Amino acid sequence: MKFYNLKHPEQEVSFSQAVRQGLGKNQGLFFPKELPNFADDIESLLSMPLVERSTKILYPFVKDDLSEDEFAQIVTNAFNFPALIQAVDEKNSILELFHGPTLAFKDFGARFMAQCLQKFTEDNNEKITILTATSGDTGAAVAHAFYGLDNIKVVIMFPKGKISLLQEKMFTTLGDNISTLSVNGSFDDCQSLVKQSFDDLELADAIGLNSANSINISRLLAQISYYFEAAAQLYRQRGNIDELVFAIPSGNFGNLTAGLLAKAMGLPIKRFIAATNLNDTVPRYLETGEWEPTETVATMSNAMDVSKPNNWPRVEHMLKSGIVAEDCLSSIAIDEEQTQMGMHKLNAKGYICEPHASVAYKALQYGITDSEYGVFLGTAHPAKFKETVESILGRPLGLPKELADCAGEMSLSEDLDFDFSALRSYLLERCKK
Asked: Which pLDDT tens digit goes with each residue over 230-281?
C-alpha cells in the first residue's frame, strides 16, 4: 500500500518510507491511498484477542514492507499490555489506555513505531534521530519505547514548567540515547521547532531526522487497534455495540484520527465527540467555519494544551472527502470548573480519574442521547497527576511502581530558548551521523 502527502498528493511513499520520513514535502502529512474494510467480518474480529486482531486489521497497510510473521512479531512485542473497558455506570464506560510501561495511551503508538523502525533500520545499519515535542505523555512513551535501541537517538522537547513533575521525570531521567530539552515557551512553540527542523533539508539529512509525534503514520495505525479492542470487550459484556459514541480528550487530535480510521474500516461506531479544554480551536471551527487559533492556554489537562493541532488536516480530509460522514463528529470545549466537576462526579461513582479523562467524560454527558452508549478515553494513570488529583478530590493517591522508581531521580534535561538556530546547533553536535 502507498501513502500520499495530503499537501502534495503526487508524493507517494511506502509504509517504511512514511515511518522513516515522518513528514512529507512542505510538512505534509501522509495518508493511506486506500483503507481495508472489515465490515463483513466484524463479529469474527471481535472474537479474537488483541494481538491477533491487531495483526490482521493492520497488516494490509504494511504488507509491501513486512512478511506476516515479521509483522506479527512487531505487534506482539509492541502490544504486550492490555487496554481495559471499565463501566462507571449503566450508560458509560471508560477505556483505560494507561496499563503500558509509561502509564499512558501513547505506549501503544510509540512502542509500535519503535519496533517498526528497528526492523527497517537493522539490516543496513541506518542511523536515525527522533525529534519530538511533548505536551505531557508523548515524551515518556517515546523515550521508553526507543531507550537503548541501536542506531537511534532521541531528542524530546517539552514546554518548561508546563507539564507535571512526574510526567517529566518519566523521560528526563533516562540518559543513554535519550536527550531532553526544556523549552522556554509553549507546546506549540516546541512543535514549531520540530517543523522548522524538518524544513531544513541539510539538517534533516545530516542527522537522519524523524518524528515520533502522532503525525507519524505508524503511531496512528497502532491507535486504531484499541478502538477495535474496546468494541470487542463491550460486545462480550453487552451482547451488542449499537449506538456506540466515543468521547475523546483531544489535543493534537491523533486519537480522533485513529478512531475515524477505525470507523472507515468498518467498525460500527456511531459517532465521536472531540473534547477539548480551553484550547478550543476545533469546537469554534466546527461552529463557525473559521480556523482561528488563539494563544495556547495552560490548563490542568496539560497534554491537551494545543491550539494548532497537527493532525487536524487528516481529520478534515476524511470528513470533506466522504471517507467518514461529516455528521459523525462534534466537538465540545470543557473549562476548568467543569473538569473538576467531572472528577468529583466520577469519584462519587467510585472511580478516580485525572483531568484529561474528566474532560472527555463531561463532554460525553453534554453530548450523548438517551439511546446511545458512551465510552470516554482514559489516556493516563491518575497518579501521573498526583498533586492535581489529590488537591481536587481531597484524598491521597499512591504511586504505582513505574512512577515511584523515577520520582526521586535527577532530571538530565537541558534548557533551550525558543530559538531554532540554538536547536540546530544542538542537534548537529549531538546527533550528526
From this structure: 999 999 999 889 899 999 999 999 999 999 999 999 999 999 999 999 999 9
Give residues with Cβ within 8 angstroms of 401, minimum separation 6. none
Question: For residues 96 and 226, is the Cβ–Cβ distance under 8 A?
Answer: no
Residue 183: enclosing H or E segment and its boundaries? strand 178-184
| Residue 60 three-state SS | helix
Q: Which residues fall within 8 angstroms of residue 314, CB to CB, at 6 or more apart? A: 6, 29, 31, 220, 253, 257
User: How far apart are alpha carbons 113 and 22 in whole angstroms?
Assistant: 11
pTM: 0.90
- The residue whose grid cell reads 526544556 is 182
For residue 288, give the C-alpha cell.
Answer: 463557525
Q: Set out the domains of the chain in order of their start, with CATH numbers.
A: 82-102+217-398 (3.40.50.1100)
Residues 425 and 428: their CA atoms lie apart, in Å, by: 5
Retrieve residue 271's grid coordinates: 459517532
Residue written as cell 514492507?
65
